[in-house]
Design goal:
This protein has about 260 residues and is of the alpha/beta class. The protein has a single domain (about 15-250), classed as 3-Layer(aba) Sandwich (Rossmann fold), CATH 3.40.50. Helices cover about 30% and strands about 20% of the residues. The chain is built from six helices and eight strands, in the order E-E-E-H-E-H-H-E-H-E-E-H-E-H. It has helices at about 55-65, 85-90, 100-115, 130-140, 195-205, 235-250; strands spanning about 10-20, 25-35, 40-45, 70, 120-125, 145-150, 180-185, 210-215. An eight-stranded mixed β-sheet has the order 1-2-4-3-5-6-7-8, with helices on both faces. Helix 3 packs across helix 4 (about 130-140).
């Protein structure tokens, strides 16, 4: 329903704990509209800069648009402190295991589905490395997510020499298992993923008859949603957000 000025509007946003990989209690940032619902849910997987202000703001943005939204702190087990210090410690330990991130995202989805104001549908979205994790999560889970939004997911197409014990399989190799509709947003000037890598990604989605839509933006590179950085592209970002709201409305029952 479109917003009108006579409507009551409010939200709650706070740090909570959810059960993630192996039942671990991890921190998460949760925002929800105030009202009876029912509301669809969104899991937001943060990007390489960490569990940062941009992703907490994005969590509140989803609540503003009528979603339950949880952004799990996927680095929680590394420890706490300044974001830069936590990330450095995680990188020194070899990075985050894919299995762990998938299970943390799944735990966040289950938390929202357990709430009485949930409409039972949950999507997942991430940018950069979080876009990679989003696609991976949508492929590695069944019956959990109803839609996925992959924003410039780097290393979805991952060369064998870049695989590690924490990331043992390239996400593209799981394409046949994609369990929900996928929206992908990319920049023509990006170097990870490059347009050629996006084309390979799309080729496999077609090969396995997956439901998806990809949009490649001219004049945009990596991270063109990031309004606090030089890479921000206003026109492309605004259009990208419109596509996200329409896609999620179609698949989760949220606001268009």
């Amino acid at each position: 329903m479109p917003y009108t000025t006579d409507k009551y509007e409010g939200m709650l946003a706070e740090t909570i704990t959810v059960q993630g990989h192996k039942g671990d209690s991890i921190h998460a940032y949760f925002a929800k509209p105030l009202g009876p619902g029912p509301f669809p849910g969104m899991v937001l997987i943060p990007h390489a800069p960490g569990w940062d202000e941009f992703f907490r703001e994005t969590t509140r943005r989803f609540a503003h648009h009528g979603y339950l939204a949880v952004c799990p702190d996927i680095w929680c087990r590394t420890g706490h402190g300044k974001i830069e210090d936590v990330l450095a410690k995680a990188r020194a330990a070899g990075g985050l295991p894919d299995d762990q991130v998938v299970d943390d995202a799944t735990g966040a989805a289950r938390y929202m589905k357990s709430l009485p104001v949930s409409n039972g549908k949950v999507g997942v979205m991430g940018t950069c490395s979080g876009g990679r994790h989003t696609f991976l999560t949508a492929c590695r889970t069944k019956g959990i997510f109803d839609a996925a939004v992959e924003c410039w997911g780097g290393n979805v197409v991952q060369a064998p020499e870049r695989l590690t014990s924490a990331q043992p399989v390239a996400p593209i190799d799981y394409t046949k298992d994609l369990s929900c509709p996928l929206l992908g947003l990319f920049g023509e000037e990006d170097q990870n993923p490059t347009p050629a890598q996006v084309a390979l990604h799309e080729q496999d989605l077609k090969k396995y008859n997956k439901q998806y839509e990809f949009h490649m933006y001219k004049g945009a590179g990596h991270g063109f949603f990031y309004y606090d950085r030089a890479m921000y592209r206003q026109e492309q970002a605004v259009d990208g957000w419109k596509k996200i709201w329409t896609f999620l409305a179609n698949h989760l029952g949220g606001e268009a």
